[in-house]
Amino acid sequence: MRRAPSTIALPGPDLDSRHDWQTLRTLLPYLWAWKWRVIFALFCMLAAKLGNVAVPLVFKDIIDTLVPTASAPLAGALVLVPLGLLAAYGALRFSTALFTELREFFFVRVTQRAVRTIALQVFEHLHQLSLRFHLERQTGGLTRDIERGTRSVAALISYTLYSILPTLIEISLVLVILITRYDASFMLITACTLTLYVTFTVIVTNWRIHLRREVNEIDSAANVRAIDSLINFETVKYFNNERWERDRYDEQMQKWETAQVKSQISLSWLNLGQSLIIAGGVSLMMWRAAVGVTEGRMTVGDIVLVNAFLIQLYMPLNHLGVLYREIRQALTDIERMFALLGKGREISDAADACDIAPGPCAVRFAQVDFFYDPERQILFDVDFTIAAGKTVAVVGHSGSGKSTLARLLFRFYDVSNGAIQINGTDLRQLRQGSVRAAIGIVPQDTVLFNDTIYYNIQYGRPLASREEVLAAARAAHIHTFIETLPDKYETRVGERGLKLSGGEKQRVAIARALLKNPPILIFDEATSALDSKTEKAIQAELEQAAVGRTTLIIAHRLSTVMNADEILVLDAGRIIERGSHPSLLAAGGRYAQMWQLQQDGIE
Fold first, then answer.
1. N or C terminus of the chain: which is more exposed, having fewer CB within 10 Å?
2. 280-290 burial, b for 16+ CB within 10 Å, e for fewer?
3. Hey, which residues does 376 pair with through a beta bridge?
């Protein structure tokens, strides 16, 4: 199987700096991966156009043969019609269709594979971009840009190779025939008409491009508002803001309507100008042909030939104008998608990155400083070690930087200073895929895929057997609940798992992490959405799952970390206390205060 290059040099994300030729050059490697199909398709295209141009020439000879002359009266004209001309006429007509369909047959896989490869590359690249990008992106606008971009890739390839090149070939062939068979005035009129038409089309279409960009930007903004509102359906209902959301959406749609009207009006003026140029060129050509016939320099067949060529030129020319507009619009649509491909990865594997060796893992945070923004530092000189098979808990108030530790361990971000090590090797020297394969997490905010419960649990290890999935569900104390559902494990959880309660979603997340069976576990407020009874039941399972694994527990409820080998108290990004549960209580510091408040039910 041929494959397009996996890495293609792309320009940066600045849309205004992109050029159309850059976009076309970006597409070429995807097409050239199927070069023999492309070459054969081009051959078929040329053969089809040769046959198409030859049809009027044969038709002229037939007309001239049928026209009565002094030596051959009309009554005998039919006898003089060579059967070969009729056969050639039919064969040429059929050959045009034959070679056109052959071109489509051989090139369709090239087009669809290019679309598939580009869409896959964008999809893969988006998953490789940093968490920072995905926190800042707008899902509705992003999905609309990708949708328009992939659709326009197929359109651009089709317009360029199926229409533009055949049209240019046909125009060139017609010009050659006109200049070799008739006086230069025919070629001059045709060339001037073509030049004027193309110049007018390019100038006006380029002027219209900003209108198209405005339509796209407004369309994406409207889609962002619609998606955001629908995702937060419950919140809209809670505050009875359906009318407010409708008005916000309509505000964008009014802008879209105005931009579309401007775009359509400008298109109408463009069409009128093109029609005027074509009409002038056709009139001049027919006048020259009529003069030639009256002067005896041209036959009736010649005027039929010129008229046929005019029709063949008129249609491609009219089509060429539409095609140019569509190509420019397609380029405008896909430039955003290519800009996404041009976005650099914030976190990349080092050239000599290696995998984590199988077996137990020790984790060390060595004097780690971190900030999302230089003006807002999150962690200050955080230093601790989780020995292989041991459990360390991090507690503290909201906003103290606890969950940031998990993000750094997953290498969603690189530390600003210091280092994070696994088995003594800096994370930056390890392959990201290897690191993340070695870590299982139960996050505080569990988001599920809009699929079945079974799928969401099996996502922890997609190749796991059904027995293993059910065992993980039992360990997370959710199997009994699932069995009470009408569709059991095939129950769909809805968008982001909205059909399940917070506790049910968290237990699915716990089952998913247990199924992954990694050497390192992270529980990030893993029982925060559970009631006290269920929390106690699952806590024992979590402690059992942590046996023999390197475990980091991030918690607010201190009752969940009592048995940890070491407890760290984090405050404003700094470790202010550390030790075991009894030693921290005996110290009478911040941890002891938090414990007392929670025991009294105040916090």
1. N
2. ebbebbeebbe
3. 373
How far is C-alpha 124 from the chain's CA centre? Answer: 9
Amino acid at the residue 106: F
Q: What is the pLDDT of residues 219-246, one digit of tens each?
A: 877 887 887 788 777 677 767 778 888 8
C-alpha–C-alpha distance, residues 362 and 409, integer Å: 12
Contact 542, 381 (CB under 8 A): no
Look up the pTM and report it. 0.61
Per residue in 111-148, pLDDT tens?
777 778 887 877 777 777 766 666 555 555 666 677 77
Give me 101's structure tokens: 């369909």
With tokens 């076309």, the residue in question is 24
- Is residue 281 within 8 A of residue 190, CB to CB? The reply is yes
Domains of the chain, CATH where assigned: 21-342 (1.20.1560.10), 352-438+518-603 (3.40.50.300), 449-509 (no CATH)
Cα 274 to Cα 38, 203, 269, 472, 496: the distances in Å are 32, 12, 9, 69, 52
Q: Is the pLDDT of residue 567 over 50?
A: yes
pLDDT digits (tens, 9 = 90+) for 39-79: 787 888 888 888 777 777 777 777 777 665 444 444 444 44
Contact in structure between 553 and 539 (CB atoms under 8 Å): no
| Gap between the terminal Cα atoms of the chain | 62
Q: How far is CA 535 from the centre of its chain?
A: 41
